[in-house]
Every structure is written in C-alpha cells, then in structure tokens.
Amino acid sequence: MRKSLSVALIIVLALSVAGAWAAEIEGKIQSLDTSDRTIVLDNGTTLSVAEEISLEGLQAGTDVKVSYEERDGKNVATQLEWK
C-alpha cells in the first residue's frame, strides 16, 4: 500500500512539473514557413506550430500571442491568437 502511494505521488509530481514548461510569449511575426509550420518572432524565438492550429490569415508583421511548450527540444505553439 505504501509503495503504491509513493508511486502515485511521484506520477502526480512528474505531471505537474511537465505542465510547468508551458509558457506564453507575445511578439510580431518576422517570418512564417507554412510548409514547415514554423514562425519566427521579432525577438528571434522560433516556434513550431501544432497541426491542430490553422495558419490561415497569418503573415509577417502580424502581432501574436502564443502559448507554447517544449516537446522533443522544440518550442511548439499550442495556442495562437492574433489581431
């Protein structure tokens, strides 16, 4: 019983730490590659855009707010807002 509780606690802690990697950033799109699904912001940050996010209407110069997380060493946009 005690061992099961310890394992469950470790799993919960690991999941909460994984969620801590999520971040937000705002900026202006410097460049956009729709074939590679990447955007580069004016501060040099490169983000891969998740498949479920539409790139329609995005272009260089667009101000964006991006929620992203690190996956396999890449910053992956999980939510994208623009005006």
What does this structure look like?
By secondary structure, the chain is an alpha+beta fold. It has a 5-stranded mixed barrel with strand order 1-2-3-5-4. The N and C termini lie far apart (53 Å). It has one domain: OB fold (Dihydrolipoamide Acetyltransferase, E2P), CATH 2.40.50. It has one helix at residues 2-19, and strands at 23-33, 38-41, 46-49, 63-71, 74-82. A hairpin with a 2-residue loop joins strand 4 and strand 5. The chain contains 1 helix and 5 strands, in the order H-E-E-E-E-E. Helix content is 22%, strand content 45%.
What is the tally of beta strands?
5
Major beta sheet, specifics? 5 strands, mixed, barrel
Share of helix among residues? 10-25%
- Helix count equals 1
Task: Compose a concise summary of this entry.
By secondary structure, the chain is α+β, with helices and mostly antiparallel strands.
